[in-house]
Amino acid sequence: MDSSNDEALDIIITNVVATFRVRCHLNLRTIALEGNNVIYKPEVGKVLMKLRKPKITASIWSSGKIICTGATSEDDAKVGARRLSRVLQKLGFRVRFSAFKVVNVLAVCSMPFAIHLIDFTKKNRPIASYEPELHPAATYRIKHIKATIQVFSTGSITVTGPNVQNVATAVEEVYPLLFECSKPLCK
Questions:
Q1: In sequence order, which ranges of the chain are alpha helices (DSSP H)?
Q2: Which end of the chain is more exposed for a tag (fewer CB within 10 A), N or C?
Q3: Do residues 172 and 99 both lie within one domain?
Q4: Are 130 and 139 in contact, with CB atoms under 8 Å apart?
Q5: Is 125 exposed, middle or buried (0-12, 13-18, 19+ CB in 10 A)?
Q6: How many CB atoms sit inside 10 A of residue 47's CB?
Q7: Model-level pTM?
Q8: Residues 85-118 pLDDT 10s
Q9: Does residue 5 carry a pLDDT above 80?
Q10: Distance of CA 169 to the CA centre of its chain
Q11: Residues 79, 22: one domain?
């Protein structure tokens, strides 16, 4: 980033959570015994399976519902889900990939300035909250795009939303509010 005012903010996606179904009953014991990179958790009734490329971890239930976490883009999440379906198919299950949906995206972004959290919370009182005894960040919830932003005094923010587009929109929406409450630069 350079020092000009029209610099772009880098939004780094750290986790994409997606769900899908395979439309068949899965024998978790078979997956645990015959699959690779598998952790069987019979007390919870699920199997964890990890893929290396794309790097995802899948929680697999016997009902055929699967949750994939750890992808760094929506495309990687879909590719990982399809690869996982193929692995299950090779283990002998009659898998039919369906109902794929990205349910959560976590991203981080650094503002080029520090933020005065008390001012930020006072100016945006109904939707912003700050409890320094409980958490070092102020929480800002944008209901119409279903995004939650954690704002730290260092200028770092964490954004959670239902998809990548909503996360980017949330950052664009909160930037002017954060800029208003930026701390003066110390020289």
A1: 28-34, 74-90, 117-123, 164-180
A2: C
A3: no
A4: yes
A5: exposed
A6: 24
A7: 0.87
A8: 999 999 999 999 999 999 999 999 999 999 999 9
A9: no
A10: 15
A11: yes
How far is CA 100 from each of CA 21, 89, 103, rounded to the nearest angstrom? 7, 17, 9
Number of domains in the chain: 2
Using the predicted structure, report yes or no on whether residue 2 has a pLDDT greater than 80.
no
Domain ranges, residue 60: 17-103
Question: What's residue 19's pLDDT?
Answer: 97
Q: Write the single-letter amino acid at 27.
A: N
Helix-then-strand count for the chain, H and E: 4, 10
Q: Across residues 57-63, what is the average pLDDT?
A: 96
Q: What is the CATH number of the domain that holds 125?
A: 3.30.310.10
Q: CA–CA separation, 181 vs 176, rounded Å?
A: 9
Q: Give the three-state DSSP class for 144.
A: helix
* Confidence bin at 186 (pLDDT 50/70/90): low
Query: Does residue 55 sit in the same domain as residue 127?
Result: no
> Is the model's pLDDT at 162 over the cut of 90?
yes
- Whole-angstrom Cα Rg for the chain: 21
Q: What are phi and psi of 132, to 5 degrees?
A: -60, -20
Q: How far apart are CA 162 and CA 147, in angstroms?
A: 7
